[in-house]
Amino acid sequence: MQLREQTRKLAKALSVVGLMNIQFAIQNGVVHILEVNPRASRTVPFVAKVIGLPVAKIAARIMAGESLASFNLKPSTYKHRAVKEAVFPFARFPGVDTVLGPEMKSTGEVMGIDTSFEIAFAKSQIGGGTNLPRNGTVFVSVKDADKPRILDAVRLLASLGFKTIATSGTQRYLVEHGVETAKIFKVLEGRPHIVDAIKNGGVQLVFNTTEGAAALADSRSLRHAALLHKVPYYTTLSGAVAAAQGIKAYLGGDLEVRALQSYFSDRA
User: Fold this and answer.
1) Are 140 and 181 in contact (CB under 8 A)?
2) Do 167 and 194 touch, CB atoms closer than 8 A?
């Protein structure tokens, strides 16, 4: 509701006729506005598919002089969830680091849609070319602030039959909290290390969050190895948690193919 109200106020204050692009950030329950531009974006067709309305067409007709009220648009509730995943060209450029910065690097996007977030996320990963593992070993190395919050995701994967390996600090924390975890070296600590394990097919999933320039540089070879060997690699806590939940849904056989229109047949 806050997002909707702030959007309405911005549109009126800026006298926008047509589309506008807003970037919000939510931290600790507080909504922050990063920027607002009176223009369309490539999110528009995504949103149109998700809500089942021709957003661009409506906006164009309003810009041509028709009134917003003439379209009789009403707030709706939806029983489905949609996840947008960016597709990056890193594999086509050897040596390029996969770390994301503020600039746009994606070459395309895919959408996963279903009645639950977990399945929608799994679909978005598969659609973007990520092969979600059904079994194997997950490597975990996260910064201190993320250790307590990664526990549930690792426990979930363990309950699904995955083995866990981790670098010393993360391994010690996971073991102390009841998660059976084997220790593996960082690249700078000796061999065999995590990159060796990835190259040898011993890792099927990577959860890695870093903090600081030194840690980011140290993990470059890890990111590169995961990219070359097509190992799913998640560098944020939210991504790791969603991946674990998506894998559970994937293993449960809950993925199904439906026509996009079917999600709006019972719209409230």
Assistant:
1) yes
2) yes
What's CA 28's distance to the chain center, in Å? Answer: 19
Cis omega (within 30 of 0) on the bond before 54? no
Better pLDDT: 108 or 20: 20
pTM for the model stands at: 0.81
Q: What is the 3-state secondary structure (H, E, C) of the chain?
A: CHHHHHHHHHHHHHCCCCCCEEEEEEECCEEEEEEEECCCCCHHHHHHHHHCCCHHHHHHHHHCCCCHHHHCCCCCCCCCEEEEEEECCHHHCCCCCCCCCCCCCCCEEEEEEECCHHHHHHHHHHHCCCCCCCCCEEEEECCHHHHHHHHHHHHHHHHCCCEEEECHHHHHHHHHCCCCCEECECHHHCCCEHHHHHHCCCCCEEEECCCCHHHHHHCHHHHHHHHHCCCCEECCHHHHHHHHHHHHHHHCCCCCCCCHHHHHCCCC
Residues 264, 241: Cα–Cα separation, whole Å: 29
Place of tokens 């998700």: 50
C-alpha span between 86 and 108 (Å, rounded): 6
pLDDT digits (tens, 9 = 90+) for 240-263: 999 999 999 889 887 888 888 888
